[in-house]
Amino acid sequence: QVQLVESGGGLVQAGGSLRLSCAASGRTFRTHTMGWFRQAPGKEREFVAHIMWSGEGTYYADSVKGRCTISRDNAENTVILQMSSLKPEDTAIYYCAARASGSVYSSGSYGYWGQGTQVTVSS
């Protein structure tokens, strides 16, 4: 069974930083590329960032460009989302997800999801 487990969420003040980590089990990294989504109360799940197998290709939502960096370690089967200059509107549950094919921006393209980690940014 493939599992994705997020960690690193928490409560931070506006302007602060957080480092989210996703640990993958099974063979997820050998057949999928990895992304991060987030979901705030009352809103649909929103794309945040994505990274290809080689690490060469990265994608970011306009709302986080310049403030987030996604990286992966294929040997350790981990994906990192480093966030800085956080804003209250970044408050959401953040999910790690694995994609086999389809648009990297669409949640429907991802077949595996983690349980989520809560990020709360206070003003």
Q: How do you describe this structure in short?
A:
This protein is mainly beta and 123 residues long. The chain has one helix at residues 28-31, and strands spanning 4-7, 10-13, 18-24, 33-39, 46-51, 58-60, 68-73, 78-83, 92-99, 110-113, 117-122.
The ordered string of helix (H) and strand (E) elements is: EEEHEEEEEEEE
Instruction: Detail the poorly predicted runs.
Output: none
Mean pLDDT: 93
How would you describe the oligomerization state of the chains in this entry?
single chain
**Can you summarize the main beta sheet?**
7 strands, mixed
User: β content, as a range?
Assistant: over 45%
Instruction: Provide the helix percentage.
Output: under 10%
**What gross morphology would you assign?**
globular
Measure the end-to-end span: 40 Å
- The number of distinct β-strands equals 11
Helices, by number, come to 1
Helix/strand/pairing category: mainly beta
Q: How large is the radius of gyration?
A: 13 Å
Explained architecture:
The protein is mostly beta strands and 123 residues long. It contains one helix and eleven strands; from the N terminus they run βββαββββββββ. The protein has one helix at 28-31, and strands at 4-7, 10-13, 18-24, 33-39, 46-51, 58-60, 68-73, 78-83, 92-99, 110-113, 117-122. Strands 2, 4, 5, 6, 9, 10 and 11 form a seven-stranded mixed β-sheet that branches. A four-stranded antiparallel β-sheet has the order 1-3-8-7, with no helix packed on it. A hairpin with a 4-residue loop joins strand 7 (68-73) and strand 8. The longest helix has 4 residues, at 28-31. The radius of gyration is 13 Å and the shape is globular. The N and C termini lie far apart (40 Å).
